[in-house]
Amino acid sequence: MSNEKLQKNDENEKCGDAEAQPIPHFSLLISHLLKKYWGYDDFRGIQREIIESIGSGHDTLGLMPTGGGKSITFQVPAMAMEGICIVVTPLIALMKDQVQHLHHIGIRAEAIYSGMQHDDILRILENCIFGGVKLLYVSPERLSSSLFQTKLRHMPVSFITVDEAHCISQWGYDFRPSYLEIANIRTIHPHVPVLALTATATPTVVQDICDKLSLHASDVSPQTSALRAQSFNVFRMSFERKNLAYLVSHTNDKLNELIHLFEINEGSAIVYVRSRRHAREIAEHLSDAGFSATFYHAGLDHVQKDERQRDWQHDRTRIMVATNAFGMGIDKPDVRLVVHYECPDSIEAYFQEAGRAGRDGQPAHAILLYNNNDHAKLEKRIVDTFPEKDYIRQVYEHLAYYYQIATGDGYGVAREFNMEEFCRKFHHFPIRVHSALQLLQRAGYLEYDEEADNQARVRFLVSRDELYRLEQVSPTEERVIISLLRNYGGLFADYGFIDESIVAQEAGLTPPQTYEVLKALSQRHLLHFIPRRNVPYIRYCQRREDAEHIQLHPDVYENRLTQYRERIQAIINYAQSDDKCRSRQLLAYFGETTSKDCGQCDVCQPSSANTTDALRQQILTLLADHQSHHITELARLPYPSKDIDTALTYLIQEEYVLQQEGQLTLI
Ligand SMILES: [Zn+2]
Questions:
Q1: Ligand 1 centroid, distance to 609 Cα (angstroms)
Q2: CATH number for the 609-666 domain, one of 2.102.10.10, 1.10.10.10, 1.10.3520.10, 3.90.79.10?
Q3: What is the pLDDT of residue 221?
């Protein structure tokens, strides 16, 4: 169990009907179950309060930092209560892990997610109606399927768990439209309570989660909706991480600073970057400098992702350079260092990613590398994320040309989307097209799924006779080919979807071995193998409109733009301010205002001799043209202002620099 140090806040924020006491029997039962299945003697933090709240039928919201023991809070009551617990979570990897773990300890659990065969989904849903399954994990995208909803009506549901609940809030940084379906699901079982869990939520987002998950929240007046939100019991665990030192390092040479950091720090590390290209380049650079490093982003295929993640997880690779695609559901306890090479666009994202360091409770560092270019880049992200409305309309129109869809047609049409090709054809920049598509999705015109899970595909390039006549085929290759032929018809005529794990099982190989064999066969042109990967696709949710009729409601555009600006400003403030403990700044953002100075961040610890030298040097360089410069120009240097003041005072006293009426000149 990690993070024993996480403390419960003194004052649990509790609103609403706190009178209803859980029956004592339930208290004993959950302790008994915890011991029997999980082997623990007692609950920790706010686990028991959350479980008793849901057990007594209350809608409940639990704010727990990652590593706070979240899964116990729904798995235990699922066992204690009659019926089946529905768990909504966007993390497929986490779903699979948890189901496997539950089976291991003797609990019946199932999961359904995109990419599964229809027959399998049907069988699982039937089992959930008749067969004593205690937990059913579903991805939010499945909730709207009529098959799921029909079957759900017949399930004896105990309660609904909403994991990553901040995704339902449009004020959150990670809003996902499919989460809104959860409110509709509640109308199927109106008496079943909801347990919402999240590790990142500002006070505004907490309120919004309660509103959105309340029954009929959307069709009542704001006042009534606020009252309904009150019916949630809210439990909050402090987000303070005592073993984690947050630092902001102001530097104009990030690459060297990064290398320096790995020279002076030991242990497993993650470096977060903003682009796939950066992930690759920086990993290469670190490797060249003699460090063990690899990279990870959404564009890699599944086998590559799994391999790299495993190597890192088992310390065969020390440094993972990654985009934000890396980390969801990953639980490596001994990460010592998380570096942000580039600034994320919200405190929420920063806090979550930085929080992956030091889950074992041992000292760890979270370092943000920052300079004035970052400020400009963050400002530019506002324009990139919210392009002009006319531009959005233009992208919509070009999309119709791209797919050749006439006005009035197109309803329900779903196609793969090749961003590169689209941008080349219509002279667009990917970032802005991406934003335009997301806004069009939010406005209800399209569905844009960047990471739709596409199964692997295979087609034989030689005839069946030629295949049988081949001589140089290894026994493993032969087993893979036989398995393909036995399970899938028509592969000589056209590409067919295959399930690599089935082929692997039959051939007596692991999935990575099967992948290698298929790649080798592909290289020898015996077949063509397209690995399983995430392919973006677009679906028209409405008939194609004329571009000028595209409506972008304030809730889709202006209001969200305001929110986004505020988030960007918050992270800029965090990076640039130097007068308040970093840990306290972060906690205050999430509504915790009672914390104490951490004593280990760059604000609590005065700057090192190194930065002092570098700063003096930079001031001298600025004045090296022997012109006079106004003192305000120094504010542009990437250092805390108190350090700049100190350095300047030193240079004046030592008579390197002359100051007259706010003008500085070199002596
Ligand atoms: Zn501090």
A1: 19
A2: 1.10.10.10
A3: 41
